[in-house]
Amino acid sequence: MANPPLQPVRGTRDLIGEDFRAHHHVISAARRVTALYGYEEWATPIFEATGVFARSLGETSDVVSKEMYSFEDRGGDSITLRPENTAGICRALVSNGLTQSNLPRKVFYAGPMFRYERPQKGRYRQFHQIGAEVLGAAEPLADAEVIAAGWHILVDLGISEGVVLEINTLGDAESRDAYRAALVAHFTAHQDGLSADSQVRLAKNPMRILDSKDEGDRRIVATAPTIEPFLTEKASAFFESVLRHLDTLGVPTRKNPRIVRGLDYYSHTAFEFVTDRLGAQGTVMAGGRYDGLVEEMGGPATPCVGWAAGVERLSMLLDDIPRGPTPVAIIAAEGGSSLAIEIMQALRRGGIACDMAYKGSVKRQFDRANKKKMRFAIVLGGDEIATSTVTMRDLQTGVQERVPAALYPIAEWLVARGGADQQLNP
């Protein structure tokens, strides 16, 4: 009895065809836009020592306590597949001795992340993120500019319509201390109605309760105080400066006092790009200022700000996914394969994509080209081989023409009909 076909692990998927094109398009656009803003791309390992995430995300966070893929390797070390990459970027800054040189650094990254959670719309157990981090800049303009880069990516992808930037401030340390005290008083008064998780958070980090998805918690959160009355004059001025810069940079904003980041090292700006086009899973990009994270990694106090975005969710918003270059079909009769191979390789070296079937009659080769939706064909039959020519054929219109079997006459014909770039590679 044959073995049953193997399937991907639950919460993972293969990226093939249109799915891969959408995935690639999002990352390519992000890479192109962040380069315009002066970012360099970093790649960190997909697994780190568990402490990198336990220290940075907090032991009480859902990610650390419920969702991380952690295991002990053969040497007895605790290893975790990265659930996010900001911690890895900051670890890399420290590990590579970059905390004292050439700051600020603007870093872009793209790659897979891993969380053991219920698969849902646009979120898998292996999912992919793009992210941008500004490391070593304390100025409000850094916050505004990294947000503007994110907005620019959404515009460049053609998905900004219906997406709103919601923004809040977490203030400075003095502001947060006063706010925490107010939250403790509020949530203690409603402690019996809090979920078990939020009762733990009340003792350790009450701001995390504001992130709770529990319906009972949400009702209590709705009447909780906001941070604005507790902001110091300095923290308020910082936030107003960020908003002014965003206006200058052309990024539309909406204040939302319920956006928080519950970790101690977060401060000042917190933001999310949200849309109603993805149902309940409406956040497509989120971030904030995290001035204490590099210090958590063993480095010096280093102000940072950044964001991350899910590639899968961004892909779901795309209306049109660009296709790559469609190869030109090489159709060769028996006996013409050597010349066909020479022409095909010359075209490829010149930057023109082309493809040829490994076997089959001329008719079957044409059928294959049509199924693959190729637009143009270069035909080498008996007559063409005898006269050192090729027949150039437009497979959509049927128009065809004989040209010499040489690179530039073939390329000139293709260029004239939009089948190749205007200039060949040297």
TrEMBL record:
GO terms assigned for molecular function: histidine-tRNA ligase activity
Cell compartment(s), UniProt? Cytoplasm
> Could you say which EC number(s) this protein's record lists?
6.1.1.21
**Keywords, in A-Z order:** Aminoacyl-tRNA synthetase, ATP-binding, Cytoplasm, Ligase, Nucleotide-binding, Protein biosynthesis
Q: What is its main location?
A: cytoplasm
Subunit comment: Homodimer.
Q: What is this protein called?
A: Histidine--tRNA ligase
